[in-house]
Design goal:
- By secondary structure, the protein is mainly beta.
- The protein has one domain.
- Helices cover about 10% and strands about 35% of the residues.
- A hairpin with a 5-residue loop joins strand 9 and strand 10.
- The N and C termini lie close together (about 5 Å).
Length: about 160
């Protein structure tokens, strides 16, 4: 069994960049500029934004299910982000260099397992968990700030 890590579609976010800061604030969105080459992980490119890159920090519902685990959290999206398409079995470096909270869910949106793993161990964890037929997907979060990073599915 192998896995694929999925990036978000940029289309829903593109129109937001045209809004004024006041219009963004009315939607609880913050325009940000990356102040370093790490710490601003874009969920479309699956990479940390480069210093000086414009991003939006917004609340995103990454688990829109009718279960107690329905969930949303803050994410960054870069203005010029191109949707990443990692090869099956590969883990983007922006995940590999972080401490990860991995959470497996079944088709009903119920959590079936969870653990905190070093980014270097994510591939092994995903292979094992997605080999279980009851696992529909695994959501990856930054363990420290808790932000949603990406979803993994069986390839």
């Amino acid at each position: 069994m192998t896995f694929r890590i999925l990036a978000l579609d940029p289309a829903p976010f593109v129109p937001l960049f045209a809004l004024s800061d006041a219009e963004l604030a009315a939607r609880d969105i913050v325009r940000a500029t990356a102040t370093s080459d790490t710490g601003f992980p874009c969920r479309v490119s699956l990479a940390d934004a480069a210093t000086g890159e414009e991003l939006l920090l917004l609340n995103y519902e990454h688990l829109p299910v009718a279960s107690p685990y329905r969930s949303r959290h803050a994410i960054y999206v870069g203005r010029h982000a191109v949707r990443a398409e990692p090869a099956p079995g590969s883990v983007p470096p922006y995940i590999e260099r972080r401490l990860i909270s991995a959470r497996a869910f079944d088709a009903a949106g119920m959590m079936t397992r969870a653990d905190v793993v070093e980014g270097a161990a994510v591939a092994e964890t995903l292979d094992a968990w997605l080999n279980d037929a009851s696992t529909a997907h695994v959501d990856l979060h930054s363990a420290r700030p808790g932000c949603f990073l990406a979803r993994a599915v069986a390839a």
